[in-house]
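INTERNAL TRANSFER SHEET
From: sequence group
To: structure group
Subject: Amidohydrolase

Please process the attached sequence and return the structure record in the designated field. Keep the field labels unchanged so the import script can parse them.
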Amino acid sequence: MNAIPANTRPLDGPLPRLAAPPGATDCHMHLYLPGFAAQPGGPGIAELATVEDYRRVQARLGLERVVVTQSNAYQLDNGALLEALGQLGTETARGVAAVAPGTAEATLREWHALGVRGARIMNLPGGAVTHASMLEVERLVRPLGWHLMVQFNGQHLDDYLDGLQRLEGDYIIDHIGKFMPPVPADDRRVDEILRLLDRGNAWFKLCGGYETSTVGGPRYEDVGAIARRVIAHAPQRVIWGSNWPHVGVPRERYPDDAEQLDVLLGWAGPEACRRILVDNPASLYGF
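Return from structure group:
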């Protein structure tokens, strides 16, 4: 399928109700740049999403900093990510790459200079690097101070718990735990996530609730109950991401970007919002 030009996607709209504080950071989004092809093993690229497009979204939401996450479409080819970081600049942008076991230290240091600060572990279909390689990848990136971004179906947390407990460096539990379908906030697996956060090296990302919610927006009450419990327990370990450009769901289900920011108004108070949007990302990504 030929990629749809980026400028056909709605990028503008009403401003969010949440006034983002200075230094607010989008900790999870993707870019699909012209000239970079999808790689075997991942999903195709249905739409382009350029730095110029994202700048419009960023301005609408009042965000100043961004973390670009390697797309599954590119698998282990981080070329588009590195190109995007070069366009965005290290003052306000960081990246999370797909790191294969055995990647040379010199290569990692080159990526670090461009702003990469994390390695993606993806345990859902299309992931380039999975839990099977997680500990090896962590040993590679830990000397650089990088973290792991780990995504899995929270319903299957038991399959990953031992590996997560063995990680020595920082790591992110991605996409609100991505419970498919969502579980009650008092579920024992949410209890386990809180215990992981209490160990001091886990972070929890609020991102993409629309992908798993069965009740829908704008409040996403089912995944929101999990988010609220985690925020109340450990606001110092929580970050937020827009998940733009939302290609994990059909085009007719793309959420409004302002809605994705405003959901924090129902999940966290003003002080927690500031931590989530500014202080915690600054600590994790070195802004």
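Handover comment: DSSP finds ten helices and eight strands in the chain. The chain has one domain: 25-285.
Transfer complete.
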